[in-house]
Design brief:
Layout (H helix, E strand, L loop, with lengths): L2 H4 L4 H14 L8 E7 L2 E8 L6 E5 L10 H7 L4 E5 L19 H14 L5 E5 L3 H11 L4 E6 L11 H11 L4 H11 L2 H9 L11 H10 L4 H17 L1 H11 L3 E6 L8 H9 L3 E6 L6 H18 L4
Parallel strand pairs: 3-4, 3-5, 5-6, 6-7, 7-8
Antiparallel strand pairs: 1-2, 2-4
Helix pairs in contact: 2-9, 3-13, 4-5, 6-10, 8-9
């Protein structure tokens, strides 16, 4: 390849290419396939591995990431399970429709993911819930309890005590009423490269070993015109997730799906009390606390993959 042409490639595609090559050498890896599924006019990017006839594990990503956060886990679990992760509308490589053409709320994103799964004919699944994945996934679980084989919580919170009030203070202030100056302050602190890097490296054992692709990709995505408005709107809408925590806790008590907890104890946003709540409401809990940060897969991916594999096998979810 002409080196001069290589350096003219957009940063996004350069990083995606480097990520692909790094995944190719992942130990014990299976083939990862990529594709798009159009749901109500919105083209959603997804990654998958394994045979669709095997038990499905649906990976629901958080903020500010995309299915990229699951790039290695998808490859690692594909020999035993059908694993799939999509990018929500406005995230990653999925379409970014304007707010006039798509309602950016957790209710609507959950509806889109639900329709995505139905179109892909995935009718029984275990849900991996991280960050935004929890409010998205719990809406789907409460709507279709008969379809849920298990829930895997990785710093995906459904308890008020699982919110770090100090870290959430600016957003909680926003819930009292949207304010332009406050939103500008939040955007400056959260959406810049420094803030994004901090989200990936805070609380990790070896911050310098965390792949920079993560925050570089997120920063490029968040730098698109209109992104700040959409993401701030989701911050504001998050108050409606907190209001539904009692409903989701009741779902656990009533339906009792098997629960695997792989929770990073150094998460600045969702501390360990959020994990402890799961032990109260679910009877079948495999409980694990990890010494790492918010995006635990970056540092403890192989460990989490082994926990998932053993957890599902012990419950004959295959």
């Amino acid at each position: 390849m002409n080196v001069n042409k290589l350096f003219k490639l957009p940063l996004f595609w350069l990083i995606m290419g480097l990520s692909f090559f790094s995944q190719s050498a992942y130990a014990g890896a299976t083939e990862v396939r990529f594709g798009y599924e159009t749901v109500d006019g919105v083209k959603l990017f997804y990654r998958e591995s394994g045979k669709p006839s095997d038990s499905a594990v649906v990976l629901l990503h958080g903020f500010p990431s995309s299915s990229h956060q699951y790039r290695n886990l998808i490859r690692e679990l594909g020999d035993d399970h059908y694993v799939i992760a999509m990018d929500y509308p406005g995230f990653g490589a999925s379409d970014f429709p304007t707010a006039a053409n798509y309602e950016y709320s957790f209710d609507n994103i959950a509806n889109t993911v639900d329709r995505f799964l139905q179109q892909r004919k995935i009718s029984k699944y275990s849900l991996y819930l991280q960050d935004y994945g929890a409010p998205v996934g719990m809406r789907i679980a409460t709507k279709h309890p008969e379809r849920v084989s298990a829930l895997i919580f990785q710093n995906g919170n459904i308890y008020e005590e699982g919110l770090n009030k100090e870290a959430w203070a600016p957003i909680m202030q926003l819930w009292k009423g949207r304010d332009a100056e406050l939103e500008k302050k939040i955007a400056t602190n959260v959406f810049g490269l420094g803030g994004l890097r901090w989200q990936y490296t805070h609380g990790t054992r070896n911050p310098d070993a965390i792949l920079p692709d993560n925050w570089l990709l997120d920063h490029q995505s968040l730098s698109r015109p209109g992104q700040h408005k959409v993401q701030l709107g989701l911050f504001y809408d998050y108050r409606n997730n907190v209001a539904r925590y009692p409903e989701w806790q009741e779902y656990l008590k009533k339906n009792q799906p098997p629960v695997l907890v792989v929770w990073a104890k150094n998460d600045a946003f969702f501390p360990v009390p959020g994990a402890e709540g799961l032990k109260r409401d679910a009877k079948d809990v495999d409980y694990n606390i990890l010494d790492t940060g918010h995006f635990a897969l970056e540092e403890d991916g192989p460990l989490i993959a082994s926990k998932i594999r053993a957890f599902l096998k012990a419950r004959n979810i295959r």
